[in-house]
Amino acid sequence: MLIALFMFMSLFTLSVKAADPGPVIIVIDPGHGGDNLGAEWNNVIEKDMTLFVAKCMRHELEKYDNVEVYLTRENDINLELNERADIAKKYNADILISLHFNMSENHDGTGAEMWAPMDSILNARSSYFGNIELSLLENIGIQPKGIFTRESELTSGEYYGILRYSTNHKIPSIILEHCYLDSPENEKYYATDRDLNVLGRLDATAVAMAYRLKSDELGRDYTDFKYKKGDELSLPLDILTSDNTAPNYVEVKIYEDKDDDSLVNINFYAYDTQSGIDYYSYSLDGGETFYPANYLYGCPSGRFTLPKSVLTGTNLVVRATNFYNLSTDSDVFDMNTELYGIQKAPEEFEDPEDLINEIPLYVLNEEMNPYDVPANGKYAFVLILGLITGISTALVLFVANKYRYNPGT
Ligand SMILES: [Zn+2]
After folding, report:
1. 38 CA to middle of ligand 1, Å?
2. Could you tell me the CA-to-CA distances from 123 to 98, 167, 174, 178, 230 in Å, in that order?
């Protein structure tokens, strides 16, 4: 039924797409990943920063209408440059934006620079976005170095792989080097998660301006936006204003797991009107001690799962912390009374505002969950079953051997 509905919706989308240009499709590429760390400076690693900024950028961009946003990677994985361009091709991207942080050999570089394709049509499209981005970065104090092209001496094609493969797919692409990690002047733009969040939201705003998007939620309308190179652009204030208030509230709903009644899902929605939620943690002793943080990257909702046996008798509190390190706790849930009469989660949450729609996967961090379901019980059962099977097989073979009919003797 669901599949049929999905197919019907896809058909509908396709037929609509023929008539109007359809949504703007943005593919964000968090540079590096896996064994490829990118630049390393003091205690920061480029591959982690680009992923964080990419998720903040997507979160902001998804508040606009008529835009689809994809990331080439969601996790810390190895990904070849051609694979990144192939992902942009798969989604038929309007642009592939590859996020990076720079470093210079003599540690004397500073400011923002970009690399765009040599192909004149692709270059024009990429540079339109790039110039807006540079202007916004300049607005927060990062010196705009410019947008450059680079030809390979060997092949006379694109020097940078990501631009080369995207050009082969005829997709505009750009390498966005926000600032220099080894520049003392630039450090204040990337030093904290809050700074990276500002960069991600700035990147999203540059896309919104370049592709003339509109967001009721943010109260911004760039549908008539026009940019000429050299125009000074200002960033919306809410991206820059500091947040000196804790998240407004943390709402929690507790449900028995749909498939396994020994498990309990704790769903929460934390709201922060200003900077957004950076991470959550939970306590089982009424808020005295908390388990390690799980990052939400600005996403307001999350879910985690604990065995009923672990929750029973505890006092559960969920804490949400915003990008300014200010926290708000949920009510305390007495897990003797709350567990009594606990319900299974409804098949679909009727009102998405009510609570937690489906939770993004990256919110769940199994490694950090100290209460993974113990598998020992299951293994013991399999082991005993195996032993019984083995012994009875041996017995049957032994008996069969002893009494078998042997005409030779
Ligand atoms: Zn890089």
Report:
1. 5
2. 15, 10, 9, 19, 17
